[in-house]
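Researcher: Batch entry, complex prediction.
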Amino acid sequence: MDLPREFVCPGAKDVIELLSGTFAERLSVAAAVREQHGRDESWHAVCAPDAVVFAQSTDEVAAVVRACAEHQVPVVPFGAGTSLEGHVAAVSGGIAIDMSGMNRVKRVSAEDMDCTVEAGLTRKTLNENLRDTGLFMPVDPGADATIGGMVSTRASGTNAVRYGTIRENVLGLRAVMPDGRIVDTGGRARKSAAGYDLTHLLIGAEGTLGVITEVTLRLHGIPEAISAATCSFETVDDAVASVIETIQSGIPIARIELLDDVMVKACNAYSKLSLPEKPMLFLEFHGSQNGVAEQAERVSEITLANGGSEFQWSADPEDRTRLWEARHNAYYAAIALVPGKRGFTTDVCVPVSKLAEVIAQTRLDVGESGLTAPLVGHVGDGNFHLIVLVDPADSQEMAGAKALHERLVVRAIEAGGTCTGEHGIGMGKRHFLLKEHGDAVPVMTAIKQALDPQGIMNPGKMLPD
Amino acid sequence: MDLPREFVCPGAKDVIELLSGTFAERLSVAAAVREQHGRDESWHAVCAPDAVVFAQSTDEVAAVVRACAEHQVPVVPFGAGTSLEGHVAAVSGGIAIDMSGMNRVKRVSAEDMDCTVEAGLTRKTLNENLRDTGLFMPVDPGADATIGGMVSTRASGTNAVRYGTIRENVLGLRAVMPDGRIVDTGGRARKSAAGYDLTHLLIGAEGTLGVITEVTLRLHGIPEAISAATCSFETVDDAVASVIETIQSGIPIARIELLDDVMVKACNAYSKLSLPEKPMLFLEFHGSQNGVAEQAERVSEITLANGGSEFQWSADPEDRTRLWEARHNAYYAAIALVPGKRGFTTDVCVPVSKLAEVIAQTRLDVGESGLTAPLVGHVGDGNFHLIVLVDPADSQEMAGAKALHERLVVRAIEAGGTCTGEHGIGMGKRHFLLKEHGDAVPVMTAIKQALDPQGIMNPGKMLPD
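Model: Structure tokens for the complex:
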């Protein structure tokens, strides 16, 4: 193997030599492979690791972590690279562990509605595997992320309003801790009161406390009936008012997604649709035939009263798939609006009662900023994104985007909300963590120091320096 | 104030002197008060603290913890004393903080279906407060525990099969950490991906990482229709088979509780009912009028096919209340079966698919043990309790109960389950923690040492020495 001329982390050389015998061609130092593993889908700069190891088992992950711990070399877990906050950037070099080879479904129990999978399995592949069981894993962040990546960033997405986020759908984890120890954090019981909740400590820890290698997930029955519709509005306010009333009525809607007019236009262009280019809700109802009809009727009463259009139904599964694919591709559609731009994505989440006010102020702010920033969101949870189009090399544009983001986050936190509903802190929001959590941050730091005293696990992420 | 002649923890004297000015008559060293705060409802021995402080604010709790930290004196939070694993026993003396004065509802948002309450509020008082809002807090461990106590033991109860445990119903906490620092672990957003999940770390930590002083809770709409029924069976196996089929059918039943014949007999005697003294399910359905009728019909098809009786409906609210009060008093009913006995309670939880086998083996084992041990459980979650009647002074009986418990726990863990579904580890199950969590226990210990290096927070609980 030809080693790179320079290492970002000098100790990486020793680790590579230590591991090359075991991993052979599954350890790569090729520039292209390293580059690919140092970037996600965001605007954050590429930070290539010194080497990439393609792991195939928990024991292999443990061997890599032990070698890195011995030489104080950073470890950066890599799933599908679909993060939006620079989580996979190897800011201090070190070894990226590519988890994509750990993609087995180890066990499915239809009786218990649960399964255990390796962390490198993607959510779409899991659901293809489950199809014959009548069950599905509902958490759906849009991108075809790995389960381990979703767990590590506390992901959610369109279905969370009904089925919860990944946080509510994990029963237990297997993880390699920073000293190479392998731990199982939970069993298969639906509930347990035994010991500290290490499962939830690792969910959303962004790889800074260990590498998740296996996940035991709750599954849900595929509903007897599913129907999807769109509903357009003259103003975003009217759409938001409809969402708030729907949630407050306790209607168990499965999906209720807001797109502003700019976002709808972007989706039309990118996904070849012909939706009216107005603020719009994408809706989905799950239940029995009667239940779905009843829910749809109640929601349509609400939307009509708020000036919404008649529902445009996507009756057959293919239509429905096309609609949700367009929604899932909203990020790509947004960045395709202006060729050459990257997406600077915001991710606040506020109590639903504050949603109308926060969105209205934010849209005014976008207008004044002169930036293009379509809005899309899982508004049933109070979560929405601006996708601010930026050229990362244009410092003025970046400064404008960052200032807009700063104001948005302050607004959200003042409303009782959070700087990130589902994307995580990563590199991009570290300074917001202190603003949001204040005196709780030193507690987080104490935990990090206790479990990873050398600071080798995904350094430069989440916790402020 | 007359100080006790001897202190279990010598440093307590200094703390009492330090605090007596501030707390005056709200600091007690009276033997009766100390005794009362050193015991819960279980068989565990009374361990009185050296003093009891009646706190009225988070700042007061922080002052007590700071004083205790300075003098390395144990702090034991005390809610309603309804724990079943000796959580409130001051095994090393120190200061008990009685939270019952912190019982205010600080905020209710009907729009967001959430509220913030002080930790000393009991669940029944909360629900009385909420009545006019059309909302309720569903987690219901039977006893009228405080919200803080429920959070600390990761409590659940009869409604968890539909509404989740307390773990799924807490949005954020305010807590005093072992150094006296006050932290807020979460805001009011429905979801957040910002930082380590300290909320879930403190849920179920049994007071060993800090004192919870405020809780922000999710609330749920009081259902339009509620109906409750009982259904009796010839055998426990038939009842359990009905439960498993109900859960596997995805019917959103609100409560499905199993009582064996001995337990029904105890409830009849204690709560003056005349239920047939056979294995029995207590059922409750929540939803719209149609939804409830549909659910009940589907479940009754299942129970009839498994040899169950026709449903006996508790139509009006008073009947229903009487039924559930009897269920909630099952523990007291059990110990009243043999006057003078205490309850040695077990609490395993297993995947539902293993429930029939684990219960059948357990009942055989009880039969062979010669002990009286009625069985009752939240079987929809796979959770059940034996209430083994013991005289703690009878060493042979205690040895038999402990051996029975040991075999039950091993059986549950081998089935993928847990030694405690909802009561916690406390004093009683510390040796099981290692059996269940193995290599994860040192990770828990590292967290404990990082956050409470002096080991002052509720010592002698949860973690093995």
